[in-house]
């Protein structure tokens, strides 16, 4: 493998490109919009997912196709897949693109999720609330991220609509949120990084801390759950698995078929980080073992957190990552810091 095609040119594509180039591989990024990754990739194509000529030229220029963004239209994927292998595979994408198929799949392999009801249209909401009870969370089935497309339902009389087919989830009374960054190689080998403790604010991830501070049996259980998911999907690549810790055990919140924000700590905590691990998997190279050599707190720099950059540059044992995004907007992920704490 000499050239990896990446669908999506955001910060994840950017960090994947850097990791690939360290391994002597080139990346060709395909991105319809703003592409912070454009400056580090070997090649950038800016074209829509409807542009069949551009998609064809892109696929023909690469050896394998991966993605940093799971909402690529099916028609584009069909064309790309006829030309080059897509890793992780289409099933993993289809399952995780839609919260309804995702939860159905997870329950089907014996894993617990929040209780949920399909809410195809606004007219179905009242019945769904009656069935689920409150509090609950209404989420769009597709395209939501950073808590976008979600409405908290506090009482049965509440109105409001996400504007798209949704699922209503029962509110999970969790004591903590953790995630596992797991990888599966082309040969079926599985390696996981240590679970991280995640803290969200306003629906957006703020910090990930490793070690997560939970009992070893909880961490082990989380890793085993992640392994079950990637094996069931015959997955190749890195996956982020978000879990709720509850009194009755772990509940899977959602899965992301790609490198994940809560895995950025691996850049400072492991010899091989999640980005290199993903590149290794999709390029058919052996996986690293995921071992951690430092305690790390990862903090996202969101919007005007950028004002803190001078101070962060002067902080010892702190690794700064900036994504090169031109305009600062509230709620926009601009960078992150990995603070080594032990
Ligand atoms: P991401 O940016 O991680 O993809 P998202 O928009 O897909 O986020 P979720 O992960 O579904 O959103 O939810 C965001 C956060 O909201 C969760 O991390 C958790 O803190 C809270 N949350 C989501 N679903 C539930 C639930 N059923 N019960 C309690 N809290 C929840
Ligand atoms: Mg999500
Ligand atoms: Mg999430």
UniProtKB/TrEMBL annotation:
Which reactions does this protein catalyse? 5-amino-1-(5-phospho-beta-D-ribosyl)imidazole + hydrogencarbonate + ATP = 5-carboxyamino-1-(5-phospho-D-ribosyl)imidazole + ADP + phosphate + 2 H(+)
- PROSITE patterns under this entry? ATP_GRASP (PS50975)
Quote the InterPro entries the UniProt record gives: ATP-grasp, ATP-grasp_carboxylate-amine, ATP_grasp_subdomain_1, PreATP-grasp_dom_sf, PurK, PurK_C, PurT/PurK_preATP-grasp, Rudment_hybrid_motif
Under the heading SUPFAM superfamilies, the entry gives:
Glutathione synthetase ATP-binding domain-like, PreATP-grasp domain, Rudiment single hybrid motif
Q: Which GO terms describe its molecular function?
A: 5-(carboxyamino)imidazole ribonucleotide synthase activity
Give the record's pathway. Answer: Purine metabolism; IMP biosynthesis via de novo pathway; 5-amino-1-(5-phospho-D-ribosyl)imidazole-4-carboxylate from 5-amino-1-(5-phospho-D-ribosyl)imidazole (N5-CAIR route): step 1/2
Q: Where do the ATP-grasp domain residues begin and end?
A: 103-283
UniProt: ATP binding residues: 99, 139, 144-150, 169-172, 177, 200, 253-254
Pfam families noted in UniProt: ATP-grasp, PurK_C, RS_preATP-grasp-like
Q: Which UniProt keywords apply?
A: ATP-binding, Ligase, Nucleotide-binding, Purine biosynthesis
EC number(s) recorded for this UniProt protein: 6.3.4.18
Q: Which residues form the signal peptide?
A: none
Family (UniProt)? Belongs to the PurK/PurT family.
Assembly with partners or alone: Homodimer.
Alphabetical list of PANTHER family matching this protein: PHOSPHORIBOSYLAMINOIMIDAZOLE CARBOXYLASE (PTHR11609:SF5), PURINE BIOSYNTHESIS PROTEIN 6/7, PUR6/7 (PTHR11609)
Q: What does this protein do?
A: Catalyzes the ATP-dependent conversion of 5-aminoimidazole ribonucleotide (AIR) and HCO(3)- to N5-carboxyaminoimidazole ribonucleotide (N5-CAIR).
Query: What name goes with this protein?
Result: N5-carboxyaminoimidazole ribonucleotide synthase
Traced from the root, the source organism's taxonomic lineage reads: Bacteria, Pseudomonadati, Pseudomonadota, Alphaproteobacteria, Rhodobacterales
């Amino acid at each position: 493998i000499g050239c990896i095609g990446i669908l999506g040119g955001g910060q994840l594509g950017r960090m994947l490109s850097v990791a690939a180039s360290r391994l002597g591989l080139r990346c060709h990024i395909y991105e319809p919009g703003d592409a912070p990754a454009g400056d580090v990739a070997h090649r950038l194509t800016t074209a829509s997912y409807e542009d069949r000529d551009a998609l064809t030229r892109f696929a023909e220029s690469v050896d394998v196709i991966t993605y940093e963004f799971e909402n690529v239209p099916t028609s584009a994927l069909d064309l790309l897949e006829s030309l080059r292998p897509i890793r992780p595979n289409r099933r993993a994408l289809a399952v995780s693109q839609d919260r309804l198929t995702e939860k159905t799949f997870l329950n089907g392999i014996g894993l617990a999720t929040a209780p949920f009801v399909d809410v195809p249209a606004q007219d179905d909401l009242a019945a769904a609330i009656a069935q689920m009870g409150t509090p609950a969370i209404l989420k769009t089935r597709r395209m939501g991220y950073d808590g976008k497309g979600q409405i908290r339902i506090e009482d049965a009389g509440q109105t409001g609509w996400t504007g798209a087919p949704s699922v209503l989830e029962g509110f999970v009374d969790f004591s903590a949120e953790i995630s596992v960054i797991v990888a599966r190689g082309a040969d079926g080998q599985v390696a996981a990084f240590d679970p991280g403790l995640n803290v969200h604010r306003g629906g957006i991830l703020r910090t990930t801390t490793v070690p997560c501070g939970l009992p070893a049996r909880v961490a082990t259980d989380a890793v085993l759950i992640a392994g079950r998911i990637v094996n069931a999907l015959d997955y190749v690549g890195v996956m982020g698995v978000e879990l709720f810790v509850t009194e009755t055990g772990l509940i899977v919140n959602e899965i992301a078929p790609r490198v994940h924000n809560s895995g950025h700590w691996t850049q400072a905590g492991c010899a091989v980080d999640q980005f290199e691990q993903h590149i290794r998997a999709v390029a058919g190279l052996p996986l690293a073992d995921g071992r951690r050599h430092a305690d790390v707190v990862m903090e996202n720099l969101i919007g005007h957190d950028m004002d803190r950059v001078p101070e962060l540059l002067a902080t010892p044992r702190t690794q700064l990552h900036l994504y090169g995004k031109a305009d600062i907007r509230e709620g926009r992920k601009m960078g992150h810091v990995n603070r080594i704490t032990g």
